[in-house]
């Protein structure tokens, strides 16, 4: 979506009934928070559609796999739980 969609949130809304799993990566293909995408807005839109499925990371293991996984969890938890 980062490359092909002019407004990610509009695309999520338009195809919401067909979303059954949602992968995240930032604009640079690193973990969320390492690029410039607005995940608060993106995930807010996703959940406003009534989505109740999984959100998983699909990003480069940079700077290393453990750090990337940890940063993904920290970022998503802070956005989803408001912490």
Explain what you see.
- There is one protein chain.
- The protein is globular.
- The protein is 41% helix and 7% strand.
- It has a two-stranded parallel ribbon with strand order 1-2.
- The chain is built from three helices and two strands.
- It is mainly alpha-helical and 83 residues long.
- The mean pLDDT is 93.
- Helix 1 (8-14) packs parallel to helix 2 (39-48).
Concise overview:
Helices cover 41% and strands 7% of the residues.
Core attributes:
single chain; 3 helices; 7% strand; two-stranded parallel ribbon; 83 residues; mainly alpha
Reconstruct the topology from this structure.
Elements: H1 8-14, E1 22-24, H2 39-48, E2 55-57, H3 65-81
Parallel strand pairs: 1-2
Helix content: 40-55%
Spatial strand arrangement across the major sheet: 1-2
The number of helical segments is: 3
Largest sheet: 2 strands, parallel
Number of strand elements: 2
Q: Structural class of the helix and strand makeup?
A: mainly alpha
Give the N-terminus to C-terminus distance in angstroms.
27 Å
Radius of gyration, in Å, reads 12 Å
Order of helices and strands: HEHEH
* Mean pLDDT score: 93
Q: What is the 3D form?
A: globular
Detail the poorly predicted runs: none
Strand fraction equals 5-15%
